[in-house]
Amino acid sequence: MHVDNVIDFVAKKREREERQRAQDLEKYVATQCNFQQPEKIDALVDEKIIEMKDHTLFLGFLSILKDEKIDPLDIFQDVFTLEPARFEMSYNMRWWSVVQLAFTFLTILKENEPHTYADFLGFSE
Predict the structure, then answer these.
(1) What phi-psi label fits residue 55: left (phi over 0), alpha (psi between -120 and 50 degrees) or beta?
(2) With contact defined as beta carbons under 8 Å apart, do 44 and 38 qualify?
(3) What span, in angstroms and rounded, lies between the C-alpha atoms of 68 and 49?
(4) What sign has the CA pseudo-torsion 81, 39, 61, 54?
């Protein structure tokens, strides 16, 4: 019985550390990732710290945007420019969920259309 308590303790500790890492990442994106510092967004794309969502989910999201008459480029820009609470009020979508989809979009864009990716982040002149 004592061994079960140790295993539970270790699992709880690991779960708490993972939750803290996720909160730290959310805070970092909210406060540091913007178009004034696009290199921070680019670094997260390169390091793949934010896991890419599967293509089916991403395409489903694009379909929802089309139904709602929301331009994908607009929402993916706004997710980095608006405060999270303001973004959620404007779009009625969870900010962090759209951030994850934005990183999926940026990863695909960087791999397939590097010039468009650079334009999106403002690297091009």
Answers:
(1) alpha
(2) no
(3) 30
(4) negative
How far is 6 from 56, CA to CA, in rounded Å? Answer: 40
Residue with tokens 């999106």: 120
> Do residues 82 and 90 touch, judged by C-beta distance below 8 A?
yes
Reported as a single tens digit per residue, the pLDDT across 22-36 is 898 899 999 999 999
**pTM for the structure as a whole:** 0.83
The 8-class DSSP code of residue 98 comes to H
Give the pair of three-digit tokens for residue 33.
Answer: 């990732």
pLDDT at position 10 is 81
**CA distances from residue 37 to 44, 80, 81, 90 in whole angstroms, order as listed:** 12, 10, 11, 23
What is the dihedral sign for C-alpha 29, 102, 96, 25?
negative
Nearest-10 Cα torsion for 95, 66, 57, 29: -20
Give the DSSP per-residue string, 37-66: SHHHHHHHHHHT-SPPPPHHHHHHHHHHHH
Residues 76 and 88: their CA atoms lie apart, in Å, by 13
